[in-house]
Task: structure prediction
Amino acid sequence: MPALRRTVPAVVSAALLACIPEKGGTTGETTTPATDATTGATTGATTGATTDVDPPTTGGTTQPAATDSESTTTAAGTSTGSDSSGSETTTGSETSSGTSGDTTDTGNEPVLCEGTSMSSLPGVTIVFPPQPCTFTVAEAQSGVVFHYEVHVEAELPDVLRYRQDAGDCDEPGPSGLIVAPQISGMGQAYCFCNQGLCPGLDIPPTTLQPGVYPGDLEWKGFNWQGPHVDLGPPFPPGEYVVQERAIGSFKSEGADVDYEVLAQLPITLLP
Result:
């Protein structure tokens, strides 16, 4: 019997211990969902903030919170995107600056000009193709070359060619025309006007053949009237005109009709 009395308190003590966890259980029930909810909300927010693709892993209460967090994160991402776009715009400006630099570099290259042409000879023109037209005085004196072309579109018979120099020394070129060069303006002149005295034999009429006939005019920036005249002073800075000209006559309905074929290229000399 005494041993039995010792056992009873042990049972009562065990019952009392069983009652204590009931309070702790109540606290645990309250805490555990709260902890789960908090953890879930935190996880949802973190998940939403970090990876938009991952779906919320918590219940209905947490999902809207995660959605709000995702929306906020998306907005922030959009704002960041705008900043990136701004950076791209800056990059675009740099590219534009690069293009401007290229344009500046291009501006340092010689300016190209294309001459003007007029003709009263059917199907025949003289043209200056695009070429440099701005030089310094020093560059001109070092020597420049102007390129021109005689264009004949179709065969043209009975064409007379007239000389343009003072001593009747000009002769037809590859195109069949007599093309005389000249650079003039501001009281300056460069030409083959005085080549001496020649027999001045008549040049018979010819048939012009279709084709493109290139020609060149070399110049060293000085006044000059031809081989029988001393070299003159250099051209000063200013605006001048290079021209190639052919004159003569052709048959039109049995009558002789005068013609002029002219091309002009404006040039500029800089100091």
